Each structure stands twice: as C-alpha cells, then as structure tokens.
Amino acid sequence: MPANSNRHEDTQAGGFSLSPRPLRIGALEIPSPVILAPMAGYTDSTFRSICLEQGCGLVFTELVSSEGIVRNITRTLNMLNTKASERPIAAHIYGSDPVVMAEAASIAEGLGGFDLIDINAGCPVPKIVRKGAGVALMRDPERLRKIVRAVATAVSVPVTVKTRTGISPENANISQVAHAVEEAGASALFLHARLASAQHSGPADHEILRKIKSELSIPVIGNGGVVNGERAVAMLRETGVDGVMIGRAAIGNPFIFPSIAARIYGREHLPPQSSDWMSVIARHLRGLYGEMLHENAQRKRPRQHTERAACNRFRGHLTRYLRHAGCPPRIRRELLRQEEVEPLLRAIVQALEQIH
Ligand SMILES: Cc1cc2nc3c(=O)[nH]c(=O)nc-3n(C[C@H](O)[C@H](O)[C@H](O)COP(=O)(O)O)c2cc1C
C-alpha cells in the first residue's frame, strides 16, 4: 500500500480487512470509503438519503450548470435543494469559465447544505463537451487548473474533481491532469478509471489507478465496474486507492453499501428481505413524487401529470429494484406500465408477496 494512504489495512491469509477509519477529504471526515457516484437522472434527493442511511459515505447532487446557478435559473437552483438527511454531500458542478465556476461554487456554499464542491471534468455528453466543460477540460489542463484554483479560493469547504483516465487512447493524460488539480488546491480526486471514448464499458484500469494514487498526496477514490464486495476489495487491494465509488450497481440497490462495507471490513451481512425491498421502494417513489410536486409548484407554468412523470422517472430504478427483489420479467413489465403512485405500490406489495 502506498505511503500516502488514508487507510489502514490488515491482510490476513487470503482475506482483506480495512480498519474502519474515516476517509478524510481536507477537513471533512467521511464515515465510510464507499461512495455513491453522481448519476444524472438517478441520484435524486430521496435516493441519496436512502443510500446514506445504508452506510454510503458521501453523495453528490446531480450535475449542475455553473452558468445556470449564476444566472439564478429556478430549475438549476432546484437541483441544489438538499435535506438535512443528505450529509455529507457534494455540490457537483460543471462549466469552463473559472470566474463563473468560482461564483457558482460560492453561491452553492452559501446555501449552507454542502460539505464539498466537486468539479466535473469527466462528463463526455456532447452538449457539455461543446461548451468546453466536462471531459473537454482534460484537453486543457491549464484551464482546469485555473478553475480549481478559483473555486478553492472562493469557498471554504474542500474542493474535489471527478474525472476520467483520458479522452481516448491517444489522449490518456490523467497524470498531467491529476497533478494540475492537486497543485491548484483540490482536496481529493474521484477517478473513473475508463477513457471517455469507452463511455461506461470495459474493465476499469487498475494499473492507472495505482499509478495516480502513488503519484498524488491527496486522497484518490477509484471508480468503475465496482458491482460487489469482491470487486471493491480487488480495487482497494490492487491500487491502494482511499475509497471506492459505486455507480450503476447502486441503481435500484442501496443495499450494496452495507454489503460492500461488510466485505471490506470482514463483517457479517444479512441480505435484504422482501419487506426491506418494499420499504425502500415505497420510500423512494413517494419521496421522488414529493420532490417533483414541490418543483412543479415553483414553475411559472406548472406542468400537468406530475404523478405520471414521477412513475416514469422512477422506472429506471424500479426495474432494477424488482430484479434484485427476485420479481420475474413478466410481472416487472406489468408493474412498469403503472402511472399512479399508490396503486403501483399496492401492486408491488402483491407481486412480492406472491414471490416470497
Ligand atoms: C445514468 C448515468 C448518469 C451519470 N451522470 C454522471 C454525472 O452527472 N456526473 C459524473 O461525473 N458522472 C456521471 N456518470 C458516471 C458515473 O458517476 C460513474 O463514473 C460511472 O457510471 C462509472 O461507474 P460504474 O462503473 O460503477 O457505473 C453517470 C453514469 C450513468 C450511468
């Protein structure tokens, strides 16, 4: 394990056990090194609270435009709404102008609910990249350096960066980017260990994670392909990173956090029962619907059919919740057609009772 590691490992014959010490990012103590990745369209406020309750160490807002924050756009500012149950949480912002990013970060900090400001330098979505933001910042490490410096000067909470290993095989410049970010004052690096050209497919590059971890003094949190405790332990052990970040494997499965923590710390973990799935599904859907009603009430022209929109937005989670809870595909398809919250929840109770 590298000398600059944030953690304390005891390896027993064939086993792996990490002392349960908090991960430190700047002055912030994060109770668990297993973190929920930011995922636009999925990491809504209720889901973030549920994951934290299950032992996840840190959550992020969805990706928020710095321009939108500075221009006081209601829809953008709504994305910075958080609850007391969502701590610790990072405001996850994007942009390409150091001045605008600094102002946006300062506004986010002023809202009072954020423990970190995280700068996105990894998003490959064309509409973000065209603005010179997201992964486009990897092409211009000097600009990224200026952004990190400006944001770190503007706020008192720690500033972090989430990025990738490079844009393409010919532009795999993470080492240069990581050093720029650290020198500019970032307190941690969240590293999705895939090239942007790979999108989300293929294995995470543990060799790059190991190299970057060994080169930096700030904590490095590894991300990519961690779907269970075994993969988490493999990433921690092979690379020496200070924590692991879980993306798609957490969608519809917040119980992945206690399961991974149990594997890392060598604790026992009981799998969730049907009643656990039901209670998480009900809480998540009702919470998401409540959030959408609240946002709708603030629109100049409130839209119709918020309940239907909530059920539609919940589908990505629901299909995975039901799969994890053992619900067969035919019943899943029927449930996914429902467009009213309480009837849907009653139908899920019935379906789960039939299975178990
Ligand atoms: C639907 C979806 C939305 C995502 N949105 C963001 C985002 O807004 N910001 C970001 O930095 N990464 C985003 N990501 C990338 C994830 O944070 C994570 O880096 C990626 O999924 C790899 O982790 P995994 O292999 O565990 O899924 C998104 C990924 C998915 C699947």
Describe the structure in your own words.
The chain has helices spanning 45-53, 66-70, 74-78, 98-110, 126-129, 141-154, 174-183, 206-215, 229-239, 256-265, 274-297, 306-324, 329-336, 341-355, and strands at residues 9-10, 17-18, 23-25, 28-30, 34-36, 59-60, 64-65, 89-94, 116-121, 159-166, 188-195, 220-223, 243-246. It has 2 domains: 9-265, Aldolase class I (TIM Barrel), CATH 3.20.20; 274-355, no CATH class. The protein is of the alpha/beta class and 356 residues long. Strands 5, 6, 7, 8, 9, 10, 11, 12 and 13 form a 9-stranded parallel beta sheet that branches. Bound molecules: flavin mononucleotide. Residues 37-42, 62-63, 120, 122-123, 162, 192, 200, 223-226, 246-249 line the site of flavin mononucleotide.
| Total of DSSP H or I helical runs spanning 4+ residues | 14
**From the coordinates shown, what is the CATH architecture of the largest domain?**
Alpha-Beta Barrel
CATH fold-type name of the largest domain: TIM Barrel
Low-confidence stretches: none
* CATH homologous group name of the largest domain: Aldolase class I
What top-tier CATH class of the largest domain fits best?
Alpha Beta
Total strands: 13
Helix fraction bin = 40-55%
Distance between the termini: 44 Å
Radius of gyration: 20 Å
Structural class based on helices, strands and sheet pairing: alpha/beta
Q: What amount of the residues lies in strands?
A: 5-15%
Domain module tally: 2
> Are any ligands bound, and if so which?
flavin mononucleotide
Order of helices and strands: EEEEEHEEHHEHEHHEHEHEHEHHHHH
Largest beta-sheet details: 9 strands, parallel
Tell me, what's the shape? Answer: globular
Mean pLDDT: 94
